[in-house]
Amino acid sequence: MADAPPPLTPLDESWERALCVVAHPDDLEFGAAAAVARWTGQGKTVVYAMVTSGEAGIDGMDPEECRRVREEEQRRSAEIVGVDTVEFLGQPDGVLEYGVALRAIITASVRRHRPEIVITGNFRDTWGGTNLNQADHIATGRAVVDAVRDAGNRWIFRDQVEDGGLEPWGGVREVWAFGSPQSGHGVDTTDTFDAGVASLEAHRAYIDGLGWEHFDGREFLEGNARQSGQRMGTAFAAGFEVFPMGWGD
Ligand SMILES: [Zn+2]
Description:
The chain is of the alpha/beta class.
């Protein structure tokens, strides 16, 4: 008999504010939206920051129109899971580069929102099988982890502090990456699973534009949520890889 995957440790839910930073509209909906619905339902504040507007995501649609459509879909999708603030950071879809420029943009977002938890998508090379991750996801996740540290240091991107009206923020305790093949933590999403599905379905133009035949959002999300749920002893769960942001771990 194959070894069962190890149990997931419950995520720390003793926080008030989280910031989700992902490369594209729809990224959160493929793995974290039901968890976000749970947390907003507990009275927590969750803010979304989209590094790009996913404007290169629909083959049959010009990027300028696509940007409008996808930003609108993302706002609606966020609203469904109790998120009122969605920032679009305006970086170019498909060609993000990990580096100082991207770190600065994300640092400013962390300083604006002052979260205790920052959530991003899987930035490992694969999803656990042989399918490779996408370049924007990897660039974003790596920059997020660095930006969380940059945000606390007033001498890094000091123009934001000296001229931009932002204060340093060193209060992020952990970065959580959903969808990671190395997820060791999880959260029960049984009660908010439907909101997560509705949140994905709000990306209608995008899903139709993918041209995946018979794509069923509920079925897709259920497969992952059940697997994680088995590791938590719940019907459904969302898995996360946790990166502690202190220096002692
Ligand atoms: Zn994406």
